Amino acid sequence: MRIAEVVTGTYRIPLAEPWVSAKYRITHHEYVVTEIRTECGLTGTGWCQTIGVGGLAIEQLLAAYLATTLVGEDPRNTERIWSRLWDECHFLGPAGVTTLALATVDIALWDIKAKAANAPLYRLLGGMADSVGVYASAVNLHLTQDQLLAQVEAQLALGYETFKIKIGRNDPIDDLDRMRAVRKLIGPSRTLLLDVNQRWTSGEALVQLTALREVNPGWIEEPMLSDDVAGHAHLRRTCGVPIAVGEQLGNRYDFWAYIRDAAADVLQPNVWKVGGVGEWMKIAHAAQLANLVIAPHNSLELSCHLVGAIRNGYLVENIFGGNLSDLGVVEQPITVTRGRIELPQQPGHGVVFHRDRLGAYRLDPGRPVQREPSVHAGVGAGAELTQAADFH
Q: Whole-model pTM?
C-alpha cells in the first residue's frame, strides 16, 4: 500500500454565537483538513483546529513542504513518517504550527491504518471500552448568572452528570457567587469542574482556590500560565483542589515536565496540538505510569476513540456549539446519550466531512483574513458585561 496523493485546505467556520473566556473572545474556528489517498483506493482524513488564527500557515506548511514528501510512503508506517516529519520541522518549532500540521497527517494515516485492519480506531489502539463518558462543557464566562444557570439546567435535562464552567471574571466574588449558584442547581453529588484559562498569577490562584473550595471543584483547569510548571507544582501541594492542565501544551516533552515535577492531577492532551494520535497515546501511557488520568481537550469525535483505547481515560469533553456535529459539517453527527457515547463501529475514526457544507467556508491562501483581535481585557462588570450580553 502506497500514498498516491495528499490534499489539504483551510476552512473558517463561524460559531453560532461568540464565546468568551477569561482570555479570548472567539467568533470562528479554523479547521485544516488533510486527505491522504492511497493507490489501492483507501482514503484517510485528518484535521486540526485553531481558534481563528493560523490555519492558513498550517495549510501552507503542509502543501508547500510536506505533502509531496509523503507520496510513495506506506501509510501504515505511522511512527516512521511522523518521526521524519518531526525531525524536518523541529527547527521551525517543537510545537504550535509544527505539531498542528503533523496532526492532520497522523490522524489521516491512523484512519487508513484502522480501515486497512477493518477495525474502529479505538479498538486498533487498545480497545479498553466500547462506550465512554462525556462531560458538558461550554465557553460561558460572559453569560449572566441567570443565563448560566439556564444553560446548566438544559445540560442537566440531557442527562449530564459532570459540568465544566468558565471562571476568571474581574471580580472574584462574582466567580464565587456564580459557582455557588451552579453547585446549588446540580446538587452535591454531581461533579463541577472549573476552568480559568491561565488568567491567575501564583498568588491569585492560591487565594481564589482557597475560597472556591467551598463549592467542591472536581478540578481547576489552567489556573496559571501553562509554561509555569514549578508554579503548578507548588499550587498542587498547597491549594487543596486537583489541578488539570494540557490544553496549551504542545508535545510529549511538555507533558513529561508536568509528570516529572508532580505538577498536575489530570492531563488534558489535545490530539491536534500534540501532533496526532501516536503522540497522544505516548502521553496517555506516560501518564498511566504516574497514576494520572487523561481527560482530552476538545475534539469530541476523535477524543472518544482515544479515551476508549486506554485504561486511564476519564471523560471526553463536549464543548457545546463547538463540536463538528454542532457546526453541521459532518455527514454522521455523533450522538451523546445521557452523558455517554457508544463508540462508532465502522472502520477508521468514522468522521466524514460534508464536503458541500465545509466547502462554503474555504479560505483563499492568497487573501488576508478579515477579523477582530481575539484577546480581550476581561469580563465581569459595567460596560464589559453589557457588551458581552449583547452577543445573545
A: 0.95
